[in-house]
């Protein structure tokens, strides 16, 4: 099956699973895959297809059906000005809260601005009149595309209905061939969830709450930007679920919080025995590939999101999305939780032993010990690359601190200034854990006029003379170009940087000296020098030690 046919088949099928009963088509060449998929669905008795030769008439026909039924109607056309002729009806749908799903076929992006026939810029063509716009992307025959397409359609359908009904726009680019080629094979099944749409979107109405399926074998995942954390952590604890919290989710506290789930989830033999029946996600997880892999394989993955305009589902595995959920208390023993906690304790103890065996300053031990040493009420701001990942792997559960990171886009820019801004409005002591490149990238954040307030902030800078995270990625095997284009070594004297800004400076010489090094008040810099290659070796030793300890536990 060619990619165009596969994409169109899946898009139409998922719209039908969501509840589409009517579709309107204005014929054209580039939209042929969608037209054929809709026609096939009509022949199967799954949809009522309405064909109109004029796009403007077609769009208002769809508007009338959707306005009367209150159910989204799919509206399809070819590329170019055909899509532009939908605009008046889209505006009316926007202003009168009528749900429409616009499927505009498009030429592939490489033809834009080349003078290619019937090719215009259709990205966000309807501007603010569309509740949501998305360029689907040119289909490719590779695993993962079906989940992406179905999740995308589910999101579009949900957003067309709630919380503010209106038109949504999917721009669908097709490369030739545009008609079926007789080959029915594809690299993965095109079928979706047989029980319904890929993702069920639960819009909040007064008093509405999604009730999580009752089970003792559940897991709560807390990522960046999570809200109402205490409420849901308490509910998960009552249900006997382990809590897998990223540091900046600020839910790593209490008896149910784990600290070594990164290592546990990377072990197939552990996951075979600990596959959850339901996973509830708060915030945006994304620090750990093993965690994302668990979400990808979850049987029931409920995403809690305060807004249905965007919900965090990077692996396209959400089965339900809601603005509020209730985790029920279920009777039964606590064998599920005990098993997770025993494995977590074994892994954490093994990792601690590896870290404590090295008296020199190392990056993961610095992260672990820094969190442990902070006084209650402290704020810790971390860089979004290696420091936050080190915390994720080695931070032990504790209460009384707030952890922040710029994980919205995970950029390296502006981190000194962000940390200073947070410190200026925080009521307690403030600290930042940054890499050398992140620190140097925002040196200008240290420039303060004489009348400006100085934050009480200790900037702890891990100086490994370059981009340390790349030494843990596949790029490290590229020994030729690696150092120049990934490691990006630098040789800036951070003590001189501190002196240039008249800031107190200390160098952390030994791991045990951390409490003394971070002591003090006002804006100050603490430098911890490490080695990138040694850090990569240490991380490998941590992983091996953790997994060895868990395997020994499972073998008992």
From TrEMBL:
Domain Thiamine pyrophosphate enzyme N-terminal TPP-binding, chain residue ranges per copy: 7-124
Superkingdom per UniProt: Bacteria
The protein's required cofactors: thiamine diphosphate; Mg(2+); Mn(2+)
Molecular function in Gene Ontology: 2-succinyl-5-enolpyruvyl-6-hydroxy-3-cyclohexene-1-carboxylic-acid synthase activity; magnesium ion binding; manganese ion binding; thiamine pyrophosphate binding
SUPFAM superfamilies hit by this protein: Thiamin diphosphate-binding fold (THDP-binding) (SSF52518)
Enzyme superclass (EC): transferase
Catalysed conversion reaction: isochorismate + 2-oxoglutarate + H(+) = 5-enolpyruvoyl-6-hydroxy-2-succinyl-cyclohex-3-ene-1-carboxylate + CO2
EC number(s) from the headed UniProt entry: 2.2.1.9
Name of the featured protein: 2-succinyl-5-enolpyruvyl-6-hydroxy-3-cyclohexene-1-carboxylate synthase
Gene assigned in the entry: menD
């Amino acid at each position: 099956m060619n990619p165009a046919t596969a994409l169109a088949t899946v898009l139409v099928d998922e719209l039908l699973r969501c509840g589409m009963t009517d579709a309107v088509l204005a014929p054209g060449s580039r939209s042929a895959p969608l037209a054929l998929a809709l026609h096939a669905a009509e022949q199967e008795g799954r949809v009522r297809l309405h064909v109109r030769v004029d796009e403007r008439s077609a769009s208002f026909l769809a508007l009338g059906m959707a306005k009367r039924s209150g159910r989204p109607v799919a509206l399809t056309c070819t590329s170019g000005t055909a899509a532009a002729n939908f605009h008046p009806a889209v505006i009316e749908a926007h202003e009168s809260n009528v749900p429409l799903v616009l499927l505009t076929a498009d030429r592939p992006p490489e033809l834009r601005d080349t003078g290619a026939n019937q090719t215009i810029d259709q990205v966000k063509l309807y501007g603010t009149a569309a509740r949501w716009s998305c360029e689907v992307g040119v289909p490719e025959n590779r695993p993962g595309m079906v989940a992406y397409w179905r999740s995308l359609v589910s999101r579009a359908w949900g957003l067309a209905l709630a919380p503010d009904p209106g038109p949504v726009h999917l721009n669908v680019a097709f490369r030739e061939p545009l008609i079926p080629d007789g080959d029915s094979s594809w690299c993965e099944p095109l079928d979706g969830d047989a029980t319904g749409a890929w993702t069920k979107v639960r819009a909040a109405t007064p008093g509405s709450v999604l009730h999580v399926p009752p089970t003792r074998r559940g897991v709560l995942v807390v990522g960046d930007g999570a809200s109402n954390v205490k409420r849901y952590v308490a509910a998960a604890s009552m249900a006997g679920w382990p809590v897998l919290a990223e540091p900046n989710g600020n839910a790593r506290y209490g008896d149910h919080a784990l600290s070594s789930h990164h290592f546990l989830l990377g072990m197939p033999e552990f996951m075979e025995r600990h596959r959850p029946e339901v996973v509830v996600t708060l915030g945006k997880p994304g620090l750990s590939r093993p965690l994302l892999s668990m979400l990808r394989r979850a049987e029931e993955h409920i995403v809690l999101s305060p807004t249905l305009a965007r919900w965090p589902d990077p692996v396209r595995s959400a089965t339900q999305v809601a603005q509020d959920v209730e985790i029920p208390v279920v009777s039964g023993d606590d064998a599920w939780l005990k098993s997770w906690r025993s494995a977590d304790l074994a892994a954490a103890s093994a990792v601690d032993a590896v870290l404590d065996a090295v008296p020199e300053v190392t990056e993961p031990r610095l992260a672990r010990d820094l969190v442990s040493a902070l006084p209650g009420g402290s704020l810790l701001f971390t860089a979004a690359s290696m420091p936050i990942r080190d915390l994720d792997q080695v931070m032990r559960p504790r209460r009384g601190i707030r952890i922040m990171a710029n994980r919205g886009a995970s950029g390296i820019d502006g981190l000194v200034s962000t940390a200073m801004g947070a410190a200026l409005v925080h009521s307690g002591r403030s600290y930042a854990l940054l890499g050398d490149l992140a620190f140097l990238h925002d040196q200008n954040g240290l420039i303060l006029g004489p009348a400006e307030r100085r934050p009480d902030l200790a900037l702890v800078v891990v100086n490994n003379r370059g981009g340390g995270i790349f030494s843990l990625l596949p790029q490290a095997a590229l020994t030729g170009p690696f150092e120049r284009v990934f490691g990006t070594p630098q040789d800036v004297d951070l003590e001189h940087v501190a002196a240039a800004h008249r800031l107190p400076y200390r160098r952390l010489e030994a791991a045990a000296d951390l409490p003394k090094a971070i002591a003090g008040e006002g804006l100050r810099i603490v430098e911890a020098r490490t080695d990138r290659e040694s850090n990569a070796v240490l991380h490998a030793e941590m992983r091996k030690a953790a997994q060895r300890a868990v395997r020994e536990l499972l073998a008992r």
